Write the structure tokens for this entry.
Amino acid sequence: VRWEDSPLDDKPYRTMVCYKESQSNEKIDPLSGSWTGTFRDGRSINPRGAMPENALMGTIFTVNAQRLDSLVVPSAYSKLRFWRNTSIAELSEGDQYVSVKGVLGHEWDEDLDNGYRPEGLIHLSETWVDNV
């Protein structure tokens, strides 16, 4: 995504432009140095090169399907400060918390080690889902 001046009154940064270049096999944005595809797209048509989102926050979008899955928190994560003052903090060894179905829904991220994941990432849960 990038911004252009308004076609109506030339005021700057008024029009959002996106060519969705990651869905094309060639560069289609007329500005050669601009990129309106996904950050992770490392193909030669991307003038910026790959910059996957997990380089910034540690997780990367991977699932895009109509799902109604539960989030699972094994007891190994229950003592993390994040879960303090919740029922998850009281889990016994070997137990796990399973949320209601639908917490993991249409789109969600994963922790993938693709060479861009930052050091020090802390997991708060661990859910395995087949067929996504």
Remarks:
- Residues 74 and 109 are 18 Å apart (CA to CA).
